Amino acid sequence: MDIATRVYNHKWKIDPIVRSLIDTDFYKLLMCQSVFRNRPDTHVRFSLINRTTSIPLADLIDEGELREQLDHIRSLRLSRGESTWLRGNTFYGKRQMFRSDFMEWFEGLRLPPYHLERRGDQYELTFEGLWHEVMLWEIPALAVLMELRSRAVINDMRRFELQILYARAMTRVWEKIEKLRAIDGLGIADFGTRRRHSFLWQDWCAQAMIEGLGPAFTGTSNCLIAMRREVEAIGTNAHELPMVYSALAESDEALAQAPYDVMSDWHEEHDGNLRIILPDTYGTKGFLDRAPDWLAGWTGIRIDSGDPAKAAQIALDWWRARGEDPLEKRIIFSDGLDVDSIAALHRQFAGQAMISFGWGTLLTNDFRDLVPGNGLAPFSLVCKAVAANGRPTVKLSDNPEKAMGPAGEIARYKRVFQVGDQEKIDVVV
Amino acid sequence: MDIATRVYNHKWKIDPIVRSLIDTDFYKLLMCQSVFRNRPDTHVRFSLINRTTSIPLADLIDEGELREQLDHIRSLRLSRGESTWLRGNTFYGKRQMFRSDFMEWFEGLRLPPYHLERRGDQYELTFEGLWHEVMLWEIPALAVLMELRSRAVINDMRRFELQILYARAMTRVWEKIEKLRAIDGLGIADFGTRRRHSFLWQDWCAQAMIEGLGPAFTGTSNCLIAMRREVEAIGTNAHELPMVYSALAESDEALAQAPYDVMSDWHEEHDGNLRIILPDTYGTKGFLDRAPDWLAGWTGIRIDSGDPAKAAQIALDWWRARGEDPLEKRIIFSDGLDVDSIAALHRQFAGQAMISFGWGTLLTNDFRDLVPGNGLAPFSLVCKAVAANGRPTVKLSDNPEKAMGPAGEIARYKRVFQVGDQEKIDVVV
C-alpha cells in the first residue's frame, strides 16, 4: 500500500457506512421527485421499527458510533459525478428522468436532523420535516443500523474466522446464482440495499449477479452500485405514497380515493415499465376490485406481502376481467424471496404473464447459521412514515403481521377499504 | 495501488513460482549438509516421474513456460536475509545447525542445468551433477510443475468462478482444521511443499494452521514459510540417502549394510528429535529386525508407506523387543494423510507413543471435485534419485506400487533385504 493512501485513510475519524446520497434505492428518488412536485409542503415523521424485538439493537450498537454514522450522512452532498449521472443517464429507456428543478434542489440538499433516543434495549430513531427531505433518510438509516449490527457481531472474530465467514457466504450466494442460472427466461434485480449485511457485501453480490447471470440480472435498486457497475437502476414506487396520501385525506370518502390519487399522479409522470401498481397497502383484492379502468391499462403489478401465488392469481383474474391480456402484463415479486420461492413462482406464472423478481435481503444478507448463536441472521427492520401533517399513517398490507398504525385507525381503514379476514404469514426479513 | 509497485510488477517477464532457494523442504538442507560432508564427490541423476499417467502434463503445460520457470530457479541465489536466518535461527532447539563451510558453499550456489524433453504427453525432466547440488532441484521442480498445472486449469476461469473456487477450498481447509482442533494432544506439521496447489496457497494453509491450531501446529517443512511466519522448520531425512548409499555399495554385503551406514553418518551429526528412523526404503520389518541396537536408542520413526497402523505396530513391538519404552519414542506419520486417517491413527496410538503427523498434499492441494472434470485434483508426481555414479537406484518401500528401479535390481534388492510378499495400496497423492 502506498503511503498517501494510508495517510488518507488515517484522516477518517470513522469508517463511514454510507458515503453517498445515491447509496439509496432508485425508487426513493423517483418518489422524491414526485413528492417534490405534487406534495411539497407535507410534513412527515419517519420512524425506525425493529419488528424482531429479540435483537437488542441498543445493546449491540454503541450510541456514539451510531450518531457518528448518522452525522456523517448529514454531511453528505450530491457529488458532481453523481449529479451528472442522474441528469445524463437513461433510466427505464428515458433520458432526463429527473427534471432540472428537482436536480437543482437535490444538488443543494443535506439531510434534515434526526432524533435518537435509547428505549430499553432498542433505539427510537425518528426524522421529521418536509416529506421529500425526510423520506431520503429511510434507506441510509436502515443500512447503517444493519451494518453496525454486522460489525458488532464480527468485531470479536479473528482474521481467519472472518475469511472463512466470507468464503462461506460467497459460496452460498454463488450456489444460489447457479440455481437461478438454470431458470429459463429469468429476470431478476437486486432489491437488497436496505437490509444488506454491508455496502461492500451488496456490491460484491451485485457483481456476482452480473457475472453469473448476465442479461438475466436486470439491475439493482441501488443507484451508487448501478452507476459504478454500469447496470440498470431498478424500482418504481412504494407504500409511503398511499400511506401519506391516505393520512392526509379529510374524510372517509377521500381516504377511499387516496390510493388511486397516488396512481393518478404517477400516471401523469411516468409510462411503460414505471407504471407498476403496488396494490397491497390496504388489501390487494379490494384495491383492484374498486380500481378505475385506466389502472388496468398499466404495465404491471408488484406483489409485496401475503401469499405471492394467491396475489398473482388475483392480478391475473383482474386483468382478464378488465379485458386485458396478462401475457402483456408484468408481475414483479419482491417479498421475502429466496431461490426456491423464485423458482417455484417462475414455474407457476412464467407462461401466464411477464415475470420479474426483486430479490432483497436473502441476496444481500444471507448470513444465516454462519456464526455461533446465529448472530448475523438478517432481521426485520423497517423505517416508515408514521405521521403526515400530524395525523397517523396506516398500513394494512395482505399480511396482518405487517400492519402498522394506531388500533382505532387500523379499524377505520379496514372498514373504509372493506378488508375482511387476512391470512397471517411469519415475517422473516 | 501505488505506481511504483505497478511498474515494479511490470518488470517481471514471468510470474515466478519459486522465488527463493529456501522455498524448499527443511530436510533437503539437512541432507544436503550431510552429503556435502560425507559424500561430496558423488554424481547423481534425479528424474521427474509422473505416477499418474492419465494426466498429460506435456499437453497441459507449455514447454516455453516451464523452461522460463526452471531458468528462473537457476537464477536464484541465497539472499542475505535467508542466509542470516539459516545461520542464526534455532532449529530443533539447536543453534548453528548449519556449519560455516556449508553455509559459505550454499551462499555461492546456483542450481545446476536441467535437461527437459517432451516424450509423448509427458515431460522427461532430469538433473545431473554433484549430489549436493542436484538434490536441491527436487522440491522446486515438483512445485513448479504442480503450480503450472494449476495455472493451466485455472487459466480459463472467470473472476467470480475463481473467487468461489478459493472460497470453497478455504472453507474445506478450515473445516479440516476445526476437526483437528478437537483432537486432544495433537501435534501436526505442514509437509505439503512439493505437491502444493501453489506457493500462495501453501502459505495461506500454513497461516490457517497457525491461527486455527495454535501450538498443536508444530511447524512447516517449508523454510521460506517457516522464516516468514516465524514457526518451526520441520523435517529430518528422506529415502534418497539410503537409495544413493545403496546404489554405491560394491557388493551384496555392502548393500545390506548401506541403510545402516546412512543412519550411522546421521547419528554422528544429529541427536534428539532429529534422530528419526525412516525404515521403509527396503521394507520396514526386515530393516528393524536386522538393525543394530544403537538404532533402537533413536528418538523415533517415520511411517511413509504401506498400512500405517501395521507399520506403527511393528515399530512398537520392535522397541519393546529391544528393551525400549515406546512412551518415550515418537512415531511420525507422513504418508497420504487426511483428517480422518489422522484422527484414527491418533486415537489408536496416542496412548502408546508420542505421535506426530506430517500432513502433505491433502493439506496444501485438496482441490478435489472443485472444478468440472476434477482437473485440479492432486496427483502423484515425484522427483527421485535414479542413478548414483552411473548405477541405478532402487526403492522398494512397504507398498509395491511405490517401488522403483530396474526389474533386475529390484529382484536383487528384494533378495538382499529379504523382502517377501507386500500388500498393494493405491497411491493417490
From TrEMBL, chains A, B:
One of its GO terms (molecular function) is nicotinate phosphoribosyltransferase activity. Residues 22-145 form the Nicotinate phosphoribosyltransferase N-terminal domain. It holds the Pfam family NAPRTase_N. InterPro entries: N/Namide_PRibTrfase, NAPRTase_N, Nic_PRibTrfase, Nic_PRibTrfase-Fam, Nicotinate_pribotase-like_C. Residues 188-420 form the Nicotinate/nicotinamide phosphoribosyltransferase domain. It catalyses: 5-phospho-alpha-D-ribose 1-diphosphate + nicotinate + ATP + H2O = nicotinate beta-D-ribonucleotide + ADP + phosphate + diphosphate. The modification Phosphohistidine is found at H239. The keyword Membrane does not apply. The keyword Cell cycle does not apply. Keywords: Glycosyltransferase, Ligase, Phosphoprotein, Pyridine nucleotide biosynthesis, Transferase. Pathway: Cofactor biosynthesis; NAD(+) biosynthesis; nicotinate D-ribonucleotide from nicotinate: step 1/1. Its EC number is 6.3.4.21. Transiently phosphorylated on a His residue during the reaction cycle. Phosphorylation strongly increases the affinity for substrates and increases the rate of nicotinate D-ribonucleotide production. Dephosphorylation regenerates the low-affinity form of the enzyme, leading to product release. NCBIfam families: NAPRTase (TIGR01514), PRK05321.1 (NF003704). Catalyzes the synthesis of beta-nicotinate D-ribonucleotide from nicotinate and 5-phospho-D-ribose 1-phosphate at the expense of ATP. Belongs to the NAPRTase family. HAMAP family: NAPRTase. This is Nicotinate phosphoribosyltransferase. It comes from Ruegeria spongiae. The lineage of its organism: Bacteria, Pseudomonadati, Pseudomonadota, Alphaproteobacteria, Rhodobacterales.
